[in-house]
Amino acid sequence: MNSSPASPVADGAVSDPSLHRLEPAMSLGLSDRLIDRMVLIASLVSAACALVLLQAKVYPVSMLVDALAAVGLILLWLSRHRIPSGRRLACLALTGIFVAVPAIVFNPYSPDGYLLVAGVMALSFTNWSGPRALALPVSCVLLLAAVAVGVNLDWIQVTTDAPNFSGRPQAWLIVCLTVVLLGTAMGGAIFELKHRLLGQIELLESGNRKLFRFAYQDAVTGLWNVEFLARELERHRAKGVAHQLMVIELMGLRELSALHGPMRVDQLWREGVELLRKNLSAKTLMLCRLSGDQLAVWAPEAESHRLEEASQAFMAHARSKLSLDRLGIQFHAALVSFPEHGLDLDALRRGAQVALQRAVAQGPGACVAFAAEMVQQLHEEQLLRERVRQALDQDGFYAVYQAKVDREHQQIVGFEGLARMRPVGEEQVPGPATFIGVLHAEGWMTQFGERMLQRILQDVPALCERYGADTQVAANVSPALFLSPSFPDLLQRLLLESGVSPSNLIVEITEEVFVGDLQRLRQACGALRDLGVQVSLDDFGSGFSSLSYLREVHFDEIKIDRSFVQRIETDRRSQMVLSTLCELGRDFDCRVVIEGVETAGQVACISGLHGVCLQGFYFARPQPLEQLLGP
């Protein structure tokens, strides 16, 4: 695999702009505009010479040659946009020789033909190198020598009134040598200057390449960096063509770097880029490394679904060939459109970041296209986080209590404390599922659990005074707080501060607690039981964990999930499952609480079950402490 930064763009989508700037200087050739002007001037001069000769009625051959040269050069100038500059320059030089030959033949002692040949020789040395630069000068020298021999041997008749040079070969030799020396001196001087300038330009080009790579390429992968992508987007903004930009994010690189070192991460980047190039083969494709864990794919001519398909293929190949699952690396991708979603790179990256958050929520390998409404949703989520944080800092949560009723005696035996958020002004108060989700996502559950536990313990004495000294109140505790080594000490301190007997408190946990170490869970339950506090397993039966671990850890109470109650009125299988779960709880010496009882029909279906407690809207909705205490 070639990871050299010499070829950072797939399939030649973008090239080094410095090469385009240095290309004219490398040849030291004439510009297109100057060549066109030379062709136009030469055509006008040839036409003028032809008219003068026609008026004077002399040199009919030269007159015809000049006229033909003028017509040819005018046609060349008119078709200048279809003929390359090199060919136009060659035609100009050949036309010069074509005009110079008759001038020398019919007036060999006049300098105009020789000077024209010398100019052609100098033009050759200026614009070409190697054999191409010597072709025209050698041809001109041979032409002059042939003319000299022809005149000397009377093969070429000179029909002018000027002195006849045919008997004076020395004069012809002096004229030819003078022209050759003049052309050679001019061409040699220009060639030497050109050689020196080329040496300096090569040094400048080498330095320019190094500076360009340093400024616009990533040192590890050889890809373009953020600065180059921003410049290219700025350059394409004026064209008004919609482009697609895909951002791929790698998660888990920090952990990989900590375990295996930065060199392993760099190697993974090189292998991934090579694999991505094979899956994304668009001709106008640019790969760019945005940051340490993000890669951008810019394809102006590729449709969004083409990029999405290629990204999915790349991720599938990457998992198998790069062993990403074993390394703990996950991929997510986002699609944004230029200029619809932003006119500069910063705006596009913000949109891509929003879409990446949605991709992370959907799971590994997801690719999400950005939409404008995502920004509004993100803004609302940010406001919700701020609102929950404010409530957590300013005692904005309070407890409500839902009664547990003994089925046989139809009397209240306990309560479950539930958290609610206090409203501020006319705002709509977020529900428990909403703010609990925010607390979990932000890592605030431990702090929230401590405060709610403290609040519930402050209300327990009043509930015991109103409903009996044996009334038990359950408080939900997050797995992180429950498994914390300091939780037993915290609970003991709160019990002492509130004056609540440990037997009046039940700590409820969900099956998420089983994700941790089983031995640690046993120790946590044992520590609470040593304090006299009972432990309840909430949402029992909703997953396989609670069923498999029930034999490993002893709980004082299990609360059967509401999903087993919803269809017991019409589904006999649900009745059988509910009855089996209740018997299972009693066999493990656990008190059984059935949640979600909402109708009289459900109560009737449960009437055959003994030794259970019921909880649900049929008996009571969650109520604040003031309503439970009554007038």
Number of helices: 23
Radius of gyration, in angstroms, nearest whole number = 46 Å
DSSP strand tally: 14
Physical arrangement of strands within the biggest beta sheet:
6-7-8-9-10-11-12-13
Shape, per Cα inertia axes: rod-shaped
The structure class reads alpha/beta
Mean pLDDT: 77
Biggest beta sheet attributes = 8 strands, mixed, barrel
Relative strand content: 5-15%
Question: Would you identify the regions where 5 or more consecutive residues have pLDDT less than 50?
Answer: 1-28, 161-167
Helix percentage range: 55-70%
Q: What is the CA–CA distance across the termini?
A: 82 Å
Can you walk through the features of this model?
- There is one protein chain.
- It contains 23 helices and 14 strands.
- By secondary structure, the chain is an alpha/beta fold.
- The strands form 2 sheets. An 8-stranded mixed beta barrel has the order 6-7-8-9-10-11-12-13, surrounded by 4 helices.
- The protein starts with 16 loop residues before the first helix and ends with a helix.
Task: Give a concise summary.
The protein is an alpha/beta fold and about 625 residues long.
SSE map:
Layout: H1 17-27, H2 32-56, H3 60-78, H4 85-106, H5 111-127, H6 131-152, H7 169-216, H8 226-237, E1 243-251, H9 253-260, H10 262-279, E2 286-289, E3 294-299, H11 304-321, H12 324-327, E4 330-338, H13 345-362, E5 367-369, H14 373-393, E6 397-406, E7 411-421, H15 432-442, H16 445-467, E8 472-476, H17 479-482, H18 487-498, E9 505-509, H19 518-531, E10 534-540, H20 544-549, E11 557-560, H21 572-587, E12 591-594, H22 600-606, E13 612-614, E14 623-624, H23 625-629
Parallel strand pairs: 4-5, 7-8, 8-9, 9-10, 10-11, 11-12, 12-13
Antiparallel strand pairs: 1-3, 1-4, 2-3, 6-7, 6-13, 6-14
